[in-house]
Amino acid sequence: MGSRLPVTSGRPLKILIGCDTFAPDINGAARFAERLAAGLVQRGHDVHVVAPNTAYRRSPAHTEVIEGEPMTMHRLPALRWLPHDWVRFVWPWRSKHWARTVLDEVQPDIVHIQSHIIIGRGLTRIAHQRGIPVVATNHVMAENILDHTTFPKFIDDVVLRFAWTDAKRTFEMTRAVTTPTRRAADFLERTIDIRGVVPISCGIDRRNYDPVIAPRERNRILFVGRLTGEKQVDVVLRAVAALDPALDVHFDIAGGGDQRKALEALTVQLGIEDRVTFHGRVTDEQLRELYSRSSVFAIASIAELQSIVTMEAMASALPIVGANAVALPHLVHDGENGHLFEPGDVDDLAAKLTQVLTASPAEYERMQRASLDGVAVHDINRTLDTFEALYRDEPLPA
To answer: Which residues form a coiled coil (predicted)?
Structure first.
């Protein structure tokens, strides 16, 4: 992996963050990039972000306030990917052109890409040619993208092989490759045969959440996230339908996505439409309220490289019931702050939800406090310390 001499330790850096998804998009990768950029601004760095525009035109460098902090945005002409409800993309064959343009304007000390797919791919190649060090963070499992290609499986298989091969070429040009958890790092190392992937939590500012240590007045299950295939919200709906009616459970779903209409139809088919509320996209204040009044957070996703929403739920003192897949076991410690269930197993999920919802007040409080203790290691300041060390090519904090 390439690098050049580290910039002078301690002085503010000019950092260019390259994203294929960023505000106003709502997803884990976008939310992480926003918090990272805002945190770096708070620490005195000159932060520039290059991301898709919301229209097919280029927006010259301008200031946007993200997470309460001003930063310089470079918005590139982008098109909507029609099979998906919000994804916008820059033409891949224009990525190097735009990389040259933005790098000429910014002249950064370091480039930090949040995706190796289009914008990050172009930035990495041009920065590498110019001797500008690049740090890459991988939030993507290439398999997830295939949910939205509409191609036959044999074409998807070819696309998948190409995607991971191209990812390997991109990552080999960087100073460091990071991903949110050790499990995700192991997955990436196995998949594309690279070594030294650094696990760095996406981080969370626990001060933004309102944990309420107490039994709830009503049994409420919560899911927050995109309503897409890999999230398997249908599994949670079927589990809710299988719960004992005496539990009088209500299921709140916050987030939008291409699966919403199908999931709404499923609630009718299951006869639980009066027990499910689709809130759509919500404000931060509304989200905090949903976390605070819920009894348990349920996530059936099989493709989480970390899951910021699960950390938010933990910071809100919620027990978690999550699928035993990819990185969720890194957050959900079975029998401590909740339970893991076999991915896709409706009966197992229903049983684990029942265990939480019927727990004694003392047991419920124990799970709540375990969530708070478990999320403490994901403090955003530790995350920022680690990335700053990578940017400066200094030893990582212990």
So the answer is: none
CATH number of 14-203+379-392: 3.40.50.2000
Classified as helix, coil or strand, 251 is strand
Domain spans of the chain?
A: 14-203+379-392, 206-377
Q: Same topology for domains 14-203+379-392 and 206-377, yes or no?
A: yes
- Asked whether the bond before 24 is cis by omega within 30 degrees of 0, the reply is yes
pTM given for the model: 0.81
314 Rama class: left (phi>0) / alpha (psi -120 to 50) / beta: alpha
For residues 49 and 64, give the distance between their C-alpha atoms in angstroms, rounded to a whole number. Answer: 10
Which amino acid is residue 123, in one-letter code? L
Topology of the domain covering 206-377 = Rossmann fold (3.40.50)
Which pLDDT tens digit goes with each residue over 186-207? 888 988 889 999 999 999 988 8
**Residue-level pLDDT at 153:** 58
Both tokens of 83, joined, read 């099979």
What does the alpha-carbon distance between residue 72 and residue 106 come to, in Å, rounded to a whole number?
A: 10
Residue 309 three-state SS: helix
